[in-house]
Amino acid sequence: MAAWGVRDMPDQGGRTAVVTGANSGLGYVTARELARRGARVVLACRSEARGRDAVERLRAEVPQAEVELGSLDLGDLASVRAFAASLPYERLDLLVNNAGVMAMPYGVTADGFETQFGVNHLGHFALTGLLLPTLLAAPGRTAGPRVVTVSSMAHLLGAVDLRDLNSEHRYRRWIAYGRSKTANLLFTHELARRLAATGADVVAAAAHPGYASTNLQTAGPRAEGRRAAERMMALGNRVLAQPAEAGALPALYAATAPGVRPDSFTGPSLAMWRGAPGPSWRAPWTLDDRVATRLWTASEELTGVSYDALKN
């Protein structure tokens, strides 16, 4: 059987998609390929300047693309609420929670959360909850409405610490990153369970890119002026990583392929590293119902976003 690629994506005409962090890397490729297949795509970006550049670049590559820019800072819950409130569409077919930060020096978001936990998990938790009514309003199609959250094989670095979600007692950048990616998978697990309990026609799935060459690897060292580490990460991107076009395939598969199952985890088929998308192994702690429920409750309390649409 031939490996799945963008050529296998079903037609996306008539669908509306939001892709976070779509100004570069995996998010940009995801937005571009969805638009190429006919979807109307909102590029949700923190930087307006980089977002405008991405929209112009995408329209140059795909002249028929129906794309627009949305202002979204996942590290600021006020921005998340403003973005959700400003979305002019009564229904949404696809939300790709792609944006993130990796191995950053310790810092906090506008709301006082540790940056990686706040951006990678809480920001997307709040965004999904606020957009859920529009996802539930989307009519069932071949793919159906979906929420795809991009995690990482770095989730293997650790389970979430429910007693120290914001790393206030001890901060280790890579462990904090791994825990935020575990939180992405626990969120998907619990969201899928709650959707199933209400009979909602929305699929919650997760994906990861393996080792893909993006700006994510060099952003942390650059922020601290660690030039040797930045050069090492850049070398790894050139020598070991697959290009962003390949890294985006698992998310595109989870977003568009027929038969994607709720709470599935799609990644590169070759040792979780590179290659065509396929089912990916995940750590047992990402399937822990008790922890998933407790993280969900904590996330509602921290963000002030309650998933009322799933409580009826």
Number of strands: 8
Rg over CA atoms, rounded to whole Å, is 18 Å
Please count the helical segments.
10
Strand arrangement across the biggest beta sheet: 3-2-1-4-5-6-7-8
Distance between the termini: 43 Å
| Category from helices, strands and their pairing | alpha/beta
Uncertain runs? 233-240
Model description:
- It is built from ten helices and eight strands.
- By secondary structure, it is of the alpha/beta class.
- An eight-stranded mixed β-sheet has the order 3-2-1-4-5-6-7-8, with helices on both faces.
- Strand 7 (265-270) and strand 8 (274-279) form a beta hairpin.
- Helix 4 (115-136) crosses helix 10 (289-303) and helix 5 (173-198) packs across helix 10 (289-303).
- The termini are far apart.
Give a topology summary:
Layout: E1 16-20, H1 25-36, E2 40-45, H2 48-61, E3 66-71, H3 77-86, E4 94-97, H4 115-136, E5 146-150, H5 173-198, E6 203-207, H6 216-224, H7 227-239, H8 244-247, H9 249-256, E7 265-270, E8 274-279, H10 289-303
Parallel strand pairs: 1-2, 1-4, 2-3, 4-5, 5-6, 6-7
Antiparallel strand pairs: 7-8
Helix pairs in contact: 3-4, 4-5, 4-10, 5-10, 6-7
